[in-house]
Amino acid sequence: MSTLAALADMDRLTSGEALVAQNVAFAVMAITMIVSALRMVTTRNVVHAALYLVVVLSGVAGIFILLGAEFVGVTQVMVYIGAIVVLFLFGIMLTKGSFGDDDGVSGERRLMAGLVGLLVFGVMTAALVDSFADAELDRSAPSTTAEIADSIFSAYIVPFEAVSVLLLAALIGAIVVARRD
Amino acid sequence: MLLNQFLILSAVLFSIGVYGVLARRNGVLVLMSIELILNAVNINLVAFGAFRASVGGEVFALFVIAVAAAEVGVGLAMVLLLYRNRRSIDLTLIDQLRG
Fold it and tell me: Three-class SS of residue B90?
Protein backbone atom coordinates (compact mmCIF):
# COMPACT_ATOMS: atom_id res chain seq x y z
CA MET A 1 0.00 0.00 0.00
CA SER A 2 2.74 2.40 0.97
CA THR A 3 4.66 1.48 -2.19
CA LEU A 4 1.62 2.39 -4.23
CA ALA A 5 1.33 5.72 -2.44
CA ALA A 6 5.01 6.38 -3.09
CA LEU A 7 4.52 5.57 -6.77
CA ALA A 8 1.58 7.96 -6.97
CA ASP A 9 3.75 10.59 -5.29
CA MET A 10 6.47 10.11 -7.88
CA ASP A 11 3.90 10.45 -10.65
CA ARG A 12 2.81 13.73 -9.16
CA LEU A 13 6.45 14.86 -8.90
CA THR A 14 7.09 14.46 -12.61
CA SER A 15 3.70 15.68 -13.81
CA GLY A 16 3.21 19.01 -15.58
CA GLU A 17 1.91 21.06 -12.65
CA ALA A 18 4.77 20.16 -10.33
CA LEU A 19 7.24 20.86 -13.12
CA VAL A 20 5.89 24.39 -13.58
CA ALA A 21 6.11 24.98 -9.83
CA GLN A 22 9.69 23.66 -9.80
CA ASN A 23 10.68 25.91 -12.68
CA VAL A 24 9.11 28.96 -11.02
CA ALA A 25 10.93 28.16 -7.77
CA PHE A 26 14.16 27.74 -9.70
CA ALA A 27 13.75 31.08 -11.51
CA VAL A 28 13.00 32.97 -8.29
CA MET A 29 15.98 31.45 -6.47
CA ALA A 30 18.33 31.85 -9.43
CA ILE A 31 17.54 35.55 -9.88
CA THR A 32 17.84 36.25 -6.15
CA MET A 33 21.17 34.42 -6.00
CA ILE A 34 22.68 36.16 -9.02
CA VAL A 35 21.61 39.63 -7.85
CA SER A 36 22.92 38.97 -4.32
CA ALA A 37 26.19 37.55 -5.63
CA LEU A 38 26.71 40.62 -7.81
CA ARG A 39 25.95 42.91 -4.86
CA MET A 40 28.34 40.87 -2.70
CA VAL A 41 31.34 41.40 -4.96
CA THR A 42 30.56 45.08 -5.63
CA THR A 43 29.34 46.47 -2.29
CA ARG A 44 31.69 48.68 -0.31
CA ASN A 45 30.50 47.59 3.11
CA VAL A 46 32.14 44.30 4.10
CA VAL A 47 29.41 43.40 6.62
CA HIS A 48 26.76 43.85 3.92
CA ALA A 49 28.83 41.57 1.69
CA ALA A 50 28.69 38.86 4.38
CA LEU A 51 24.90 39.25 4.61
CA TYR A 52 24.55 39.01 0.82
CA LEU A 53 26.63 35.85 1.05
CA VAL A 54 24.00 34.43 3.43
CA VAL A 55 21.32 35.04 0.77
CA VAL A 56 23.39 33.28 -1.90
CA LEU A 57 24.13 30.32 0.40
CA SER A 58 20.44 29.94 1.28
CA GLY A 59 19.63 29.98 -2.43
CA VAL A 60 22.17 27.22 -3.02
CA ALA A 61 20.52 25.19 -0.23
CA GLY A 62 17.15 25.69 -1.96
CA ILE A 63 18.63 24.53 -5.27
CA PHE A 64 19.95 21.39 -3.54
CA ILE A 65 16.49 20.63 -2.19
CA LEU A 66 15.00 21.27 -5.65
CA LEU A 67 17.46 18.69 -7.00
CA GLY A 68 16.26 16.15 -4.44
CA ALA A 69 19.43 16.33 -2.33
CA GLU A 70 17.83 17.31 0.96
CA PHE A 71 20.68 16.01 3.13
CA VAL A 72 23.23 18.18 1.30
CA GLY A 73 20.79 21.12 1.55
CA VAL A 74 20.46 20.77 5.32
CA THR A 75 24.24 20.34 5.68
CA GLN A 76 24.69 23.49 3.61
CA VAL A 77 22.48 25.48 5.98
CA MET A 78 24.18 24.10 9.10
CA VAL A 79 27.81 24.31 7.99
CA TYR A 80 27.77 27.39 5.76
CA ILE A 81 25.12 29.66 7.24
CA GLY A 82 25.57 28.37 10.77
CA ALA A 83 29.35 28.20 11.02
CA ILE A 84 31.25 29.68 8.10
CA VAL A 85 29.31 32.96 7.90
CA VAL A 86 29.74 33.45 11.66
CA LEU A 87 33.48 32.85 11.18
CA PHE A 88 33.48 35.49 8.42
CA LEU A 89 31.66 37.99 10.64
CA PHE A 90 34.24 37.39 13.37
CA GLY A 91 37.01 37.90 10.84
CA ILE A 92 35.44 41.17 9.68
CA MET A 93 35.01 42.46 13.24
CA LEU A 94 38.53 41.47 14.33
CA THR A 95 40.05 43.32 11.37
CA LYS A 96 37.71 46.31 11.50
CA GLY A 97 39.28 49.69 11.06
CA SER A 98 42.01 48.45 8.76
CA PHE A 99 39.85 49.48 5.88
CA GLY A 100 36.19 48.63 6.06
CA ASP A 101 35.43 50.11 2.68
CA ASP A 102 36.97 48.40 -0.26
CA ASP A 103 36.92 51.33 -2.63
CA GLY A 104 39.92 52.78 -4.36
CA VAL A 105 40.19 49.73 -6.58
CA SER A 106 41.51 51.05 -9.84
CA GLY A 107 39.13 51.02 -12.78
CA GLU A 108 41.62 49.12 -14.89
CA ARG A 109 41.83 46.28 -12.35
CA ARG A 110 38.04 46.11 -12.17
CA LEU A 111 37.76 46.10 -15.96
CA MET A 112 40.28 43.30 -16.35
CA ALA A 113 38.57 41.23 -13.64
CA GLY A 114 35.22 41.76 -15.36
CA LEU A 115 36.67 40.71 -18.70
CA VAL A 116 38.16 37.54 -17.18
CA GLY A 117 34.83 36.74 -15.49
CA LEU A 118 32.91 37.25 -18.74
CA LEU A 119 35.41 35.11 -20.63
CA VAL A 120 35.12 32.27 -18.09
CA PHE A 121 31.33 32.49 -18.27
CA GLY A 122 31.29 32.55 -22.07
CA VAL A 123 33.57 29.54 -22.46
CA MET A 124 31.70 27.50 -19.84
CA THR A 125 28.26 28.35 -21.25
CA ALA A 126 29.31 27.54 -24.80
CA ALA A 127 30.70 24.17 -23.69
CA LEU A 128 27.61 23.37 -21.60
CA VAL A 129 25.11 24.32 -24.32
CA ASP A 130 27.12 22.30 -26.80
CA SER A 131 27.28 19.20 -24.57
CA PHE A 132 23.96 19.08 -22.71
CA ALA A 133 21.63 20.99 -25.03
CA ASP A 134 18.36 19.36 -23.93
CA ALA A 135 19.37 16.78 -21.34
CA GLU A 136 16.44 16.27 -18.97
CA LEU A 137 16.99 15.63 -15.27
CA ASP A 138 15.78 12.24 -14.13
CA ARG A 139 13.76 13.06 -11.02
CA SER A 140 12.08 9.68 -10.64
CA ALA A 141 14.24 8.44 -7.74
CA PRO A 142 15.48 11.09 -5.29
CA SER A 143 18.34 9.76 -3.18
CA THR A 144 17.79 9.14 0.51
CA THR A 145 20.08 9.99 3.39
CA ALA A 146 20.55 6.27 4.09
CA GLU A 147 21.92 5.74 0.58
CA ILE A 148 24.39 8.59 1.06
CA ALA A 149 25.54 7.19 4.39
CA ASP A 150 25.93 3.69 2.92
CA SER A 151 28.00 5.01 0.07
CA ILE A 152 30.20 7.27 2.25
CA PHE A 153 31.08 4.38 4.56
CA SER A 154 31.65 1.78 1.82
CA ALA A 155 32.72 3.06 -1.60
CA TYR A 156 34.05 6.44 -0.42
CA ILE A 157 35.63 5.43 2.88
CA VAL A 158 39.18 6.43 1.84
CA PRO A 159 38.30 10.01 0.82
CA PHE A 160 36.19 10.26 3.98
CA GLU A 161 39.19 9.38 6.17
CA ALA A 162 41.35 11.77 4.16
CA VAL A 163 38.86 14.57 4.84
CA SER A 164 38.95 13.74 8.57
CA VAL A 165 42.75 14.06 8.61
CA LEU A 166 42.50 17.28 6.58
CA LEU A 167 40.06 18.79 9.09
CA LEU A 168 42.39 17.89 11.97
CA ALA A 169 45.36 19.39 10.13
CA ALA A 170 43.39 22.57 9.34
CA LEU A 171 42.29 22.85 12.98
CA ILE A 172 45.85 22.59 14.31
CA GLY A 173 47.16 24.77 11.50
CA ALA A 174 44.67 27.56 12.20
CA ILE A 175 45.60 27.55 15.90
CA VAL A 176 49.33 27.60 15.16
CA VAL A 177 49.00 30.40 12.58
CA ALA A 178 46.71 32.66 14.63
CA ARG A 179 48.36 32.02 18.02
CA ARG A 180 49.85 35.04 19.74
CA ASP A 181 53.27 34.08 21.07
CA MET B 1 13.76 20.47 -15.46
CA LEU B 2 16.70 20.71 -17.79
CA LEU B 3 20.16 19.83 -16.58
CA ASN B 4 21.56 22.91 -18.28
CA GLN B 5 19.61 25.44 -16.23
CA PHE B 6 21.49 24.30 -13.12
CA LEU B 7 24.84 24.13 -14.87
CA ILE B 8 24.49 27.63 -16.33
CA LEU B 9 23.38 29.07 -12.96
CA SER B 10 26.50 27.49 -11.51
CA ALA B 11 28.62 29.00 -14.31
CA VAL B 12 27.19 32.47 -13.53
CA LEU B 13 28.01 32.13 -9.82
CA PHE B 14 31.48 30.79 -10.63
CA SER B 15 32.23 33.77 -12.90
CA ILE B 16 31.00 36.25 -10.28
CA GLY B 17 33.29 34.54 -7.77
CA VAL B 18 36.25 34.81 -10.14
CA TYR B 19 35.51 38.51 -10.59
CA GLY B 20 35.41 38.96 -6.80
CA VAL B 21 38.76 37.20 -6.29
CA LEU B 22 40.44 39.32 -8.96
CA ALA B 23 38.85 42.73 -8.32
CA ARG B 24 38.65 43.07 -4.53
CA ARG B 25 41.50 44.04 -2.24
CA ASN B 26 40.00 43.09 1.12
CA GLY B 27 41.32 39.71 2.26
CA VAL B 28 38.04 38.66 3.90
CA LEU B 29 36.08 39.52 0.75
CA VAL B 30 38.43 37.45 -1.39
CA LEU B 31 37.80 34.46 0.91
CA MET B 32 34.04 35.04 0.56
CA SER B 33 34.37 35.03 -3.24
CA ILE B 34 36.22 31.70 -2.99
CA GLU B 35 33.23 30.35 -1.05
CA LEU B 36 31.01 31.50 -3.94
CA ILE B 37 33.19 29.52 -6.37
CA LEU B 38 33.07 26.39 -4.18
CA ASN B 39 29.28 26.65 -3.96
CA ALA B 40 29.02 26.86 -7.73
CA VAL B 41 31.07 23.66 -7.92
CA ASN B 42 28.71 22.02 -5.42
CA ILE B 43 25.67 22.88 -7.54
CA ASN B 44 27.41 21.23 -10.49
CA LEU B 45 28.24 18.10 -8.49
CA VAL B 46 24.70 17.66 -7.15
CA ALA B 47 23.12 18.41 -10.55
CA PHE B 48 25.26 15.80 -12.28
CA GLY B 49 24.53 13.36 -9.44
CA ALA B 50 20.80 13.86 -10.04
CA PHE B 51 21.29 13.61 -13.79
CA ARG B 52 23.08 10.26 -13.55
CA ALA B 53 20.83 9.07 -10.67
CA SER B 54 23.87 8.33 -8.49
CA VAL B 55 24.70 9.46 -4.95
CA GLY B 56 28.34 10.06 -5.86
CA GLY B 57 27.65 13.71 -6.68
CA GLU B 58 26.06 14.38 -3.30
CA VAL B 59 28.86 12.57 -1.44
CA PHE B 60 31.49 14.69 -3.16
CA ALA B 61 29.46 17.85 -2.50
CA LEU B 62 29.64 16.94 1.20
CA PHE B 63 33.41 16.48 0.91
CA VAL B 64 33.71 19.87 -0.77
CA ILE B 65 31.70 21.47 2.08
CA ALA B 66 34.13 19.93 4.62
CA VAL B 67 37.17 21.11 2.66
CA ALA B 68 35.63 24.61 2.38
CA ALA B 69 35.19 24.74 6.16
CA ALA B 70 38.86 23.82 6.65
CA GLU B 71 39.91 26.37 4.04
CA VAL B 72 37.97 29.20 5.69
CA GLY B 73 39.48 28.37 9.09
CA VAL B 74 43.07 28.51 7.85
CA GLY B 75 42.38 31.45 5.52
CA LEU B 76 40.87 33.62 8.25
CA ALA B 77 43.75 32.71 10.59
CA MET B 78 46.14 33.97 7.93
CA VAL B 79 44.12 37.17 7.45
CA LEU B 80 44.19 37.77 11.23
CA LEU B 81 47.97 37.23 11.30
CA LEU B 82 48.31 39.66 8.41
CA TYR B 83 46.23 42.24 10.27
CA ARG B 84 48.28 41.81 13.43
CA ASN B 85 51.57 42.32 11.58
CA ARG B 86 50.61 45.00 9.05
CA ARG B 87 47.52 46.71 10.58
CA SER B 88 45.84 46.21 7.20
CA ILE B 89 44.30 43.39 5.20
CA ASP B 90 44.80 45.08 1.84
CA LEU B 91 46.08 42.29 -0.38
CA THR B 92 47.73 44.70 -2.85
CA LEU B 93 50.21 45.73 -0.13
CA ILE B 94 51.63 42.20 0.09
CA ASP B 95 54.17 42.23 -2.72
CA GLN B 96 57.45 41.20 -1.08
CA LEU B 97 57.76 38.23 -3.42
CA ARG B 98 57.25 40.32 -6.54
CA GLY B 99 60.25 40.09 -8.86
Answer: strand
